[in-house]
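Following up on my earlier message about iron/sulfur cluster. Here are the inputs again, as you asked, copied directly from the submission form:
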Amino acid sequence: MEGSFALPYGDLKGSGSKAWQEACGLFGFYGPGQPVARLTYYGLFALQHRGQESAGIAVADGQSIRVEKGMGWVAEVFNRESLESLQGHIAVGHTRYAPKEENIPMNTQPLVFRYLHNRMMAIAHNGRLLNSTQLRQELGRSGVIFQTTTDSELIANFIARHNQRPLGEALLACQKVLKGGYSLLVMTERELAAMRDPFGFRPLCLGRIGQGWVLASESCALDTVGAEFWRDVEPGEVVVIGHKGPSFMKGEICRRAHCAFEYIYFARPDSILDGESVIWVRRRSGQELAREYRPEADLVLPVPDSGIAAAAGYAEEAGLPFIEGLMKNRYVGRTFIQPSQDMRDLSVRLKLNPIASIVKNKRVILVDDSLVRGTTSRNLVSMLRQAGVKEVHLLLASPPVKYPCPYGINTGDPQELIAARLSPEEIREYVGADSLYYLSLEGLGRAFHRLSPGDLCTACFDGRYPAS
Ligand code: SF4
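Thanks, got it. Here's what our run produced:
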């Protein structure tokens, strides 16, 4: 994904700056006799791309819950001592992205609460509630005091209100008042539970490791800890794991609306979400792109890393050479840069450098996964021209992003979505490319082989919001 420089410490996956941010990664582990804190730590490493502002792990031992968390990347937050202090057989882990104004230590997750009879609960979630303002006011009027600005705290309050009921029933009762996109992990002293919103906007899957059970935002985290993929948590479903194993409860059923952007950009390519392989969706998007638009060119150049799979698919379909002619610096760390306009331009150069001997005097098809603000693409095109490229055709493996996301992806100011303001021809002019082409919504739909277009949320492309 291209975009202006919004992240103060480099991009784990994309071409440079990420204009859009994923809202969090979840990892839960029920594993008597297993090193749950350590395996959760490894699971969070696999989900680092979903959030880099803070990380945390809470562990339950049957009697109480202990938590270690802090600001920063997983590797910065934990050390040998903190992991060894987390003794128990159930764990919930979280990596968090948050908008700048909400990026405060109090909001780091998992959140741990005490409620009736000194019982404890840890909660972590991925997504965003549409009705959080209303729910906050409702709770506030009844005297509830908040310590954070998170939706997780709101949800914990509603769970605590159903404290006479088993955890699974309490979660289903909460589902009736929560609107929006969320996947949720809740841990008590003895149980681990998960819930997915009725549309399934944000991903969540279940795996098996020995006699233990794992819940994770993406299947790549199951692979990392050696867990076997069991199945995806269904939209609206509640899973409760205790000493007898998991039990499943069906919640409200709406139409499926899995986030298309998870496949286009957010999720790791080695993940399989709701039965659909991320890397193959990206590759087929490139193939569809080649069927829709094929300018005369000498080679296909991916924008690393987010455009690689689509560029490979494009090159294969078009019968053109696929050459990695943009060198990515993978060591741009977290001590990086302040997000000013000058630094935005510099950030692209720090991260990507064209290899002149590959692109000089060539007609190049530059493939990226998406275009949100246009700044990075403009810089890339300019750098390629300086390196002597003859023509640059910028091809995007997704449709124009015109609408903000209310379901847990931070899309920033809607005014900054360039396709909401400018036509494709105006955008081409702005980025300085010889031609520019977006994959059609129909083409994107064809890139999915297991999910139909009706199973996806594509609201940021077409403005059709599945839930309001
Ligand atoms: S609006 Fe876009 S980013 Fe948000 S859930 Fe839908 S497809 Fe994903």
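One observation from looking it over: Confidence is low (pLDDT under 50) at residues 2-18, 334-339. Hope that helps, and feel free to reply on this thread.
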